[in-house]
Amino acid sequence: MLSQGWSQANNAAVSKMGLPITRTAAVRRKTTRSKQKILIIEDDKSMHALYKAVLENPKISFRSAYDGAIGLTMAETIEPDLILLDVDLPGVTGFFICKYLKANPLTASIPVILISGLSSADDILCGMKVKASDYVTKPIEENDLRSRVEDALNAAEIMEKIANASAMLPHSSTTPTAFRTIPNGGQ
Questions:
Q1: For residue 80, pLDDT beyond 60
Q2: Out of 3.40.50.2300, 2.60.200.30, 3.40.190.10, 3.20.20.190, which CATH number does the structure's domain 33-164 have?
Q3: So what's the pLDDT on residue 98?
């Protein structure tokens, strides 16, 4: 049912706590992968080649989508660790795709870096309003892109660890002990 490293005993423990065995299982599965997956959604094949060359690393694998519809399907099926998304795609904008990804529970936690030739403050603000993790303007600076991708992947890894740790905590409808009032002033 789940990936290696996640036993039936763990399933039973999670069930006893009343927690569903759903998305947290998928998160755990991602942390056991040897390579991080980056999905590139970009209609220009030369830009795919550029991103792959700039970000080349034995710990990263790349998947490519050349239009928005295929990119959305791939994001849901391959569970990438990061999405590089062109804003100016034919038919549908990267802003719309990002907004859709962030509204979808299957893809909401995937960091999305928008990449665009649009560089006005309004364009960048629009990217942040659709919950993009970052916004990179073209022409790209190679070191800047590398740094932003590394930062987004590191932040996502930290969020996975927090989600995994949180999923292991017992959940209660009562107020946590640390926030309860001590009767009689603590005496």
A1: yes
A2: 3.40.50.2300
A3: 97
